[in-house]
Amino acid sequence: MLVAAAVCPCPPLLVPEVAAGAALELDTVRAACTDALGVLAAARPDLLVVVGPGDGADPETYPEGTPGSFRGFGVGLDVRLGPDRGVPAGRELPYGLAVGAWLLGRTGWADAPVEGLAVGETLTAERCAEEGEAVADRAERVALLVMGDASACRTLKAPGYLDERAAPFDAELARALGAADTGALRALDTGLARELKVSGRAPWQVLAGAAAGNPVLEGVLLHEDAPYGVGYLVATWA
């Protein structure tokens, strides 16, 4: 059963070495992510699953110990999803899970075994929810670290340019995450999310499915901002 979840953004800029001169601008969101991970630790889970955006048509799982890096962003920084378990070389974490692994390493996570799940934007809401339900059944006490960004169309200089639909979309998303509203997350418009370059739609719908078996979870919105025209949200469910 899902006992806790933390929702965090997943831009590589969250990693100071990648952000370089702009690193200080994201200190507030980093601090909120640290607080959110504290809620996961307090829940004392038997298993933590990091859920993030992927590129595949089907969900992809990553065992504990899978490596990742930010070398594709010009930084010689390597990370690992939990302790090294001798995972065969050649398969690395997608960028969203790599940011999640960086957050866990930064906070010294050692409270439960860790696995990864990447879900692509082509995955339907129903399939995402099914994945979430399956994850929640993996252990008696399951926690999720859910990585994903809101719209990337909040300003003229945003990656997706300015789209007037972005701010209302992000506002409703912030409300849903802060209220642990699984119905609203399941109902997110897949097509609109794609047009607004939302990376977190599928991961959030996995969360909605995982929470179906625990209706008493309460949500708290810890942070909401849109630096660089991209919506960053941090929330906890417990």
TrEMBL record:
<protein>
    <submittedName>
        <fullName>Class III extradiol dioxygenase subunit B-like domain-containing protein</fullName>
    </submittedName>
</protein>
